[in-house]
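Action item from last meeting closed. Structure (406 res):
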């Protein structure tokens, strides 16, 4: 274990705690400005959120977005990142950036990736040369990117894997790799390294991992390896178990989560930060996220629907022209959706705004200590009747003192 205390480049102010659930509201002060938590972070894969300019992303009120280390490492590559002075400058983004370690992308994108104690071995997608991503290399890349939050390289395996021995090995290796990441990190005074709790769906492994990771005292803590097709009941048990063991005064990031109902329940279980490609990816298929559910605007039912994508939405796409918006109608999106880019672009703006606005409403409800009522109203809007509420959400909420069915 690293013996010296790690410097931190963030300040975490806990603003309010829900008196019933484990929900928290806080302000995370990062090198590129303060961020209100709970937060959803949109994923800008190659230093751009598909379809949006940095100004349009800023307009959604996003102040912390996610970049993929794997993609930036390939293109423009580390030498260019060093020359230009990092990803903020590359994409003229004045706000905060979080980067992943690159490991998950490799394992999920490259069939031939193989994990050894040294790191992740893979064949270059460019020319097939054998390459190796080590914890040291991942941190070096993220140091060149200059992201405000950097993630440790971890050994990720599918949560649904039945191989408990491999699961334990991955968890313990992730702890050893964290130590190597801490050792390799060149700029702890300006970039915050987050550890990643592993252990699959096994609660004992998760508990052991929490203990080991918390002892390393990183500025923030992530719960990883979830959202991989496991049952939502199991997902909630893992998040609930981990947050009970994490220090109160540090941000908690659950990786890969983005469905609105997952966000609402996960906040009740004590999580603060989330990311997911779903809101932007689904926009490219013509899907609009709304408080009554996801609408596919490629459906001909919307051909003559002259209402906004969502009534009352404050995004630039839905806002009337008189209020400085574009006044886009569902009919317009329907008609351009088939031609792809313009429709995808508009829905990306709407969906990102929806997610960020949902998190803002969540935060206000926590601050005003009415989060249980907020969650009940949220599910009542999303589902036609209580008997349609998902069982996992009812169970998880009951576990933190809220009966959605009462
Ligand atoms: Zn909108």
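Sequence:
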């Amino acid at each position: 274990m690293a013996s010296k205390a790690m410097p931190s480049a963030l300040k975490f102010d806990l603003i309010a705690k829900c008196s019933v659930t484990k929900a928290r509201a806080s302000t995370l002060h990062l090198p590129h400005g303060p961020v209100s938590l709970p937060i959803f972070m949109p994923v800008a894969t190659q230093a751009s959120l598909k379809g949006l300019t940095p100004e349009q992303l800023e307009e959604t009120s996003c102040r912390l977005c996610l970049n993929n280390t794997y993609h930036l490492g390939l293109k423009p590559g580390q030498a260019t990142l060093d020359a230009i002075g990092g990803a903020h400058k590359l994409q003229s983004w004045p706000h905060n950036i979080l980067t992943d370690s690159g490991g998950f992308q490799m394992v999920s994108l490259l069939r031939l990736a193989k994990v050894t104690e040294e790191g992740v071995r893979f064949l270059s997608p460019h020319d097939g040369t054998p390459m190796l991503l080590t914890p040291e290399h991942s941190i070096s890349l993220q140091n060149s990117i200059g992201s405000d939050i950097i993630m440790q390289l971890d050994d990720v395996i599918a949560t649904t894997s039945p191989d408990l021995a491999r699961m334990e090995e991955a968890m313990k290796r992730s702890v050893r790799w964290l130590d190597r990441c801490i050792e390799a990190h060149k700029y702890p005074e300006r970039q915050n390294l987050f550890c990643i709790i592993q252990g699959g769906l096994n609660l004992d492994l998760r508990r052991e991992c929490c203990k080991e990771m918390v002892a390393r005292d990183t500025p923030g803590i992530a719960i990883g390896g979830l959202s991989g097709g496991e049952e939502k009941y199991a997902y909630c048990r893992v998040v609930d178990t981990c947050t009970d063991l994490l220090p109160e005064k540090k941000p908690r990031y659950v990786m890969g989560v983005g469905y609105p109902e997952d966000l609402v329940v996960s906040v009740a279980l004590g999580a603060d930060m989330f990311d997911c490609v779903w809101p932007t990816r689904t926009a490219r298929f013509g899907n609009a996220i709304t408080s009554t559910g996801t609408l596919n605007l490629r459906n001909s039912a919307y051909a003559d629907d002259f209402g906004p994508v969502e009534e009352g939405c404050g995004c630039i796409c839905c806002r009337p022209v008189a209020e400085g918006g574009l006044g886009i109608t569902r009919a317009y999106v329907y008609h351009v959706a088939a031609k792809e880019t313009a429709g995808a672009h508009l829905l990306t703006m709407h969906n990102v705004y929806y997610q960020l606005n949902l998190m803002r409403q969540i935060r206000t409800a926590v601050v005003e200590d009415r989060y249980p009522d907020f969650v009940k109203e949220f599910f009542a809007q999303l589902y036609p009747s209580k008997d349609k509420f998902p069982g996992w959400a009812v169970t998880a909420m009951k576990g933190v003192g809220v009966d959605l069915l009462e």
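Note appended to the action item: The chain has two domains: 11-276, 287-372.
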